[in-house]
Amino acid sequence: MVQIRNATTADLPAILEIYNDAILHTTAVYDYEPHTMAMRKEWFATKEQQGFPVFVAEDNEEIVGFSSIGPFRPWAGYRYTVENSIYVKDGQRGKGLGKLLMQPLIDAAKEMQLHTMVAGIDAENKLSIDFHKQFGFKEAGYLKQIGWKFDRWLDLVFMQLIL
């Protein structure tokens, strides 16, 4: 049975593995080089320092996904807006783990008295776009040819949920 819980530093190796797979094999992250454990530790420490949650999905003692929210942009006027991130381990996608990881993010954002949640999604990722729509996200912007990965230009869709 899958359990959703707050992440700990002990989960970072699994989180790093899932994130690096997304970097290397998907357009979910517009980055090229795998991250290091030092980078992931810094990321986690920053989340804790800023008071943003990181959740993991654990199935039979294996981390199969993670989610978090963080600042949308660094300027003070955006302090009530966050961007969400949800990553599911390769081979575990399509099993409803994303749904289990999304609701705690929305609940946490409301508890933090945030106003809006944004998702930046590769425009070809129809599954993620449809997934976000299930939670009430609406398309708020479409940026053409904003990213370059896998030898092609990528479009980015911004979706928004008013909390």
From TrEMBL:
Gene3D superfamilies: 3.40.630.30
Domain N-acetyltransferase per the UniProt entry, residue ranges: 2-163
Lineage top rank: taxon: Bacteria
Name of the molecule in the record: N-acetyltransferase
KW NAD (keyword) present: no
PANTHER family linked to this entry: N-ACETYLTRANSFERASE, UPF0039 PROTEIN C11D3.02C
Pfam assignment, any one: Acetyltransf_1
Taxonomy of the source species: Bacteria, Pseudomonadati, Bacteroidota, Chitinophagia, Chitinophagales
The keyword Transcription is assigned to this record: no
Keyword list, A-Z: Acyltransferase, Transferase
Organism: Panacibacter microcysteis
Gene Ontology molecular-function annotations: acyltransferase activity, transferring groups other than amino-acyl groups
Catalysed reaction, written as an equation: L-methionine sulfoximine + acetyl-CoA = N-acetyl-L-methionine sulfoximine + CoA + H(+); L-methionine sulfone + acetyl-CoA = N-acetyl-L-methionine sulfone + CoA + H(+)
